[in-house]
Amino acid sequence: MTKCDQCDKPAIIKHESGQHLCVTCFSTLQNAMFLQQSMDVQRLSMLASQMNYQVDKIESVSGLPGSLPRYKVPEQPPIFTGDMNNISINKSVVGSVNTGTIESINLSMNKISNLGNEDLSHEIKIFTEAVLASEELNQEQKNDIVEQVAFVGEESAKPPQEQKNAIMGAAIKSVKETVLTVNALSTLWDKVAGYIL
Question: pLDDT tens across 55-71, in order?
Answer without folding.
Answer: 999 998 988 888 888 88
